[in-house]
Amino acid sequence: MADAPRYDDSLTIALLRARDAVTAQFRDHVGAAGLTLQQWRVIRALAGGTALDTTTLAKRCVILAPSLTRILRHLGDAGLVETVPSRDRRQRVIRLTPAGETLFIDIWQVSQQKYAAIEDAFGKDELRDLVVSLNRLRASLETDQETGDVPA
Amino acid sequence: MADAPRYDDSLTIALLRARDAVTAQFRDHVGAAGLTLQQWRVIRALAGGTALDTTTLAKRCVILAPSLTRILRHLGDAGLVETVPSRDRRQRVIRLTPAGETLFIDIWQVSQQKYAAIEDAFGKDELRDLVVSLNRLRASLETDQETGDVPA
DNA sequence: GTGATTTAATTCACATGTTAAGTAAATGAT
DNA sequence: ATCATTTACTTAACATGTGAATTAAATCAC
Questions:
Q1: Cβ contact B122–A136 (<8 Å)
Q2: Is A96 helix (H, G, I), strand (E, B) or coil?
Q3: pTM of the predicted model, to two decimals?
Q4: What pLDDT, on the 0 to 100 scale, is given for residue B9?
Q5: CB–CB of A141 and B122 under 8 A?
Q6: A114-137, pLDDT tens digit by residue?
Q7: Between 1.10.287.130, 3.40.50.300, 3.90.226.10, 1.10.10.10, what CATH number should domain A23-143 receive?
Q8: Separation of alpha carbons A107 and A80, rounded Å
């Protein structure tokens, strides 16, 4: 190990690679059920009868609004989600259909096993620490918004 | 809330959010230079006169081959990269043009400052530990070891 | 109540992610 | 040399990422 390629971008790349490695553990069996990973995140967020408006759903799934619009159209066409009436007629509240709940349970079984396998491979305590660290990183960056540039 | 949303997916989500938070630090000034973050990763990998074939470039930038094809077309149209002849006429070897090198330097200045700001906010040692941990996670999940390292 | 403003989603346009299929050149076996 | 195989990329098709503009409905100011 000489002086590494001084890839100061290492944080970004490390996050990217780590995420690739983790999602790879789930992509096959989620895909076999006919869902993308993003669609699966939406299904998960709605599991158990939870009804959420688009904005909340987007935040929880870390999906931008335009993407969520398309995802919900796909899931709706597949009969997995439906819209429930809302007092505020601007917002769209979504919930799983019975078919959606059933599909969730099927995928969820396997997902839990895959997650347990990651805990085994990496260490359960280390994994918990890592998540804490990742969340602290995010918190330390999001606290100081107010860009600080661009005064007219 | 012990039994709130029991989001066991926390690892995936934590990685996603952390990455969002980090990339947000760079997106504006890279975008102001007319580049996407992916295009910037490619420029970075080629900085300093480095010439790389598509496969190596894709691995280093963590970009899939089809995406890289399009990105290289965009960068080529913008006059930032060019193809150099290769003995093996299957592969396409890429390098920066002078304009590409110049643009790299401009963006690089600011990027380093942004990265230093992250180190300040999160802690330099903690950041190093986090990257190590992320790389260990990836290593523990990847069954077939692709080096990802570089020949000279 | 009328009009300006804000909020919630969607639509648009373009770039990338992802898988599968296709093309061309190098390699290997005979 | 000839042909099947492998390698390096590209293309195709569809899904999502991303920022800007748009539409509809609620809220605020008067």
A1: yes
A2: strand
A3: 0.88
A4: 60
A5: yes
A6: 999 999 999 999 999 999 999 999
A7: 1.10.10.10
A8: 13
